[in-house]
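Morning, I've got a small favour to ask if you have a moment. You're getting the sequence in one-letter code plus the fold written as tokens. Thanks so much in advance, here it is:

===
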Amino acid sequence: MMSSNLFQALTLDGFLAVTLTYGEQHIESDWIPLPQGGRFRWLDNGVLLAEPHDQPEKTLSLVISSGIHGNETAPIEIVDELVRKLLGGDIKLAVPVLLIMGNVLAMQVQQRFVNENMNRLFNGKHAGKTHYEAHRARQLEDYVKTFFRAYDAPIKRHYDLHTAIRRSHHEKFAIYPYPDGRPWNLEEINHLECCGVNAILLGHQPSSTFSYFSSHACAAYGFTVELGQVKPFGQNDMERFRAVREQLASWLSGDNIRRSPKLPKVPVYSVEKELIRRSEDFVFYVDDAVPNFTRFPVGTCLMKDAEGSYVVQHEDEAIVFPNKNVPVGQRVGLIVRPVDAASVFGTLSSNH
């Protein structure tokens, strides 16, 4: 696409509309100036790179992704808004940013995925698969690795924005991926709190998610940020996302990049057990309407399978991401328990 035509289309129609129009077509552009200085270019459909004219301190390189599940529309609309503000001159860009709308084909039909859950396909899990989501996951890995290599900064941050299938007792929560031996970073957790996040779930092992990929492969601070419940395009109350919208915009402007670390005020959870579907004989006793972070009485049987069952052991156990509609071998839910923040994070340190 001609750069002049692309800028006009983005300005008039928006990042989301153009992305939906071109589907899985590969489109790219030359560098195009931004109104307030800096420039941007289209790397691929749904992948936009922007850099400031000058970044003397080089404090932050930022990836903001959305639409890894095509029906999770609020994050997509948040990214669309950020692009509109950049192109409209409402934001003077101060940090390099990679803005992503991930699963374009699923977005077009407003479904979670077309062939396979894309957030189970990162960190090489796409290998040997030829369908769209596998190909797209491989591409997104390459774009993110190239970005963080090109814009190597002391703070590399990736927010992978989502909304959940079901309601939650914590409307907005974040998954802090397994840090591969690095210490948990309090300053980054404080940033999540400022985004309106109501709870933090600490990752317990390597995974196939986009945020863990950035953490593991790029040494970035990657987070899966759940912002509420899935709704169709145009039906999201964007005021409910004011905190995260303002935080992301402030980072693009070079503001609020660092914070003085302090113990989080929101609850922090760790994973007690991962529930896996092991056979076709699997039976799940958690109702589809049960919200995330629901607790059950001790002794309640949550699932049975050919290899055994799971019964609630502790009063403070809760279930997150219950989903019976998964293939054999995949996760049907996480059993989590609250932890004492002081015992987990120890002395106050930003660890940057």
Observations:
- Residues 272-343 form a domain with the OB fold (Dihydrolipoamide Acetyltransferase, E2P) fold (CATH 2.40.50.630).
- The chain is about 25% helix and 25% strand.
